[in-house]
């Protein structure tokens, strides 16, 4: 399977995040994609640099002022204090209930809260370049599939599925799955399905397409009553307005067995077929792996081959986008197991 990959991902290299009140090394590291890249090469997959500019598509799924915030964030962080060059900006105030979220504040520190859902999304000088390259990969993969290729993979980071129209969160800045789906729509595909199999609910993707009927969003994930992102991902979220009936959440309890997980996958696949989708985008999070350090499902390495084979049987042109997965050493094998099984099914 052709893979889109950009070395620019390395420019997003935050040194720390916060976990249970402590500064810790980032779970979402450059090594993740490097292990995937190595495994792709070892198994003979072709690798391309992105050929499409996603800028126009990005303006269809993110707000202009959010994109401007992201693109200028680092220079504005330095404008607050040049000494900030050696530290990372984190938000500390958010416009929650009773506070106004309709007015963009001028203060950069306040904007960090205004444009984020958590303090789990560390940013550095190269974040915009890396995130934009990832979105370019997603647009390129969709274009390749539109040209007749059965499938394509984006070995990208930072991930994207927690990023909404105007906020970052959960290590995500630009929503790559949404970029791929919107690229399909822009080229005349009338029904697209996005299947998010990351351990964590794809709240950003859901919110971007929640009132639309042209993009069906389905997510299988840890129950938000106990699992991140906590405030979205329940089964009663079915879409609204024209999008009613085009959103399906399948939350599963932490600790769910792989047998139950594959039953949920079956339900998701049936829904995609029933929708008569013409193209599929898979938000491929591998943090459903049993040894993932921050998640609690139980998929084994062979289960990822089973996943790839089942996705192939849906029979659609498919773009795979790398999302989460923090068992770094196994990430490459697990990801490429999905792709190889898809290719050979
Ligand atoms: Zn995840």
Automatic annotation (TrEMBL):
InterPro entries reported in the protein's UniProt record: HDACs, His_deacetylse_dom, His_deacetylse_dom_sf, Ureohydrolase_dom_sf
GO molecular function: histone deacetylase activity; hydrolase activity; metal ion binding
GO biological process: epigenetic regulation of gene expression
Cofactor: Zn(2+)
Keywords, comma-separated and alphabetical: Hydrolase, Metal-binding, Zinc
Domain Histone deacetylase: 32-339
Pfam families associated with the record: Hist_deacetyl
Family label: Belongs to the histone deacetylase family.
PANTHER family: HISTONE DEACETYLASE 8 (PTHR10625:SF17), HISTONE DEACETYLASE HDAC1-RELATED (PTHR10625)
Protein name in the entry: Histone deacetylase family protein
């Amino acid at each position: 399977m052709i893979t889109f990959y950009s070395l620019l991902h390395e420019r997003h290299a935050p040194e720390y995040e916060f976990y249970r009140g402590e500064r810790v090394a980032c779970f979402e590291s450059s090594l993740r994609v490097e292990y995937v890249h190595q495994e792709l090469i070892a198994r003979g997959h072709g690798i391309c640099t992105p050929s499409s500019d996603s800028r126009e598509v990005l303006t269809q799924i993110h707000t202009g002022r959010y994109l401007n915030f992201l693109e200028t964030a680092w220079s504005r962080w330095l404008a607050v204090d040049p000494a900030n060059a050696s530290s990372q900006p984190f938000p500390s105030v958010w416009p929650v209930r009773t506070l106004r979220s309709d007015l963009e504040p001028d203060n950069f520190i306040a904007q960090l809260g205004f444009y984020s859902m958590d303090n789990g999304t560390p940013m550095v000088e190269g974040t915009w370049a890396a995130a934009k390259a990832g979105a370019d990969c997603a647009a390129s993969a969709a274009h390749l599939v539109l040209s007749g290729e059965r499938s394509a993979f984006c070995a990208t980071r930072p991930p994207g599925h927690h990023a909404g129209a105007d906020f970052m969160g959960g290590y995500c800045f630009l929503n790559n799955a949404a970029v791929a789906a919107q690229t399909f729509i822009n080229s005349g595909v009338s029904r697209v399905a996005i299947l998010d199999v990351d351990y964590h609910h794809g709240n950003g993707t859901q919110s971007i397409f929640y009132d639309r009927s042209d993009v069906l969003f389905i997510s299988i994930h840890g129950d938000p009553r106990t699992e991140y992102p906590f405030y979205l991902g329940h089964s009663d979220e079915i879409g609204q307005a024209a999008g009613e009936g085009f959103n399906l959440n399948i939350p599963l309890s932490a600790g769910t067995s792989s047998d139950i997980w594959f039953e949920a996958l079956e339900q998701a696949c049936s829904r995609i077929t029933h929708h008569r989708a013409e193209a599929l985008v898979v938000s491929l999070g591998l943090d459903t792996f049993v040894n993932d350090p921050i998640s609690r499902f139980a998929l084994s390495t062979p289960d990822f081959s089973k996943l790839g084979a089942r996705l192939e049987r849906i029979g659609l042109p498919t773009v795979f986008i790398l999302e989460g997965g923090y068992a770094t050493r196994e990430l490459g094998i697990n990801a490429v197991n999905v792709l190889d099984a898809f290719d050979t099914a």
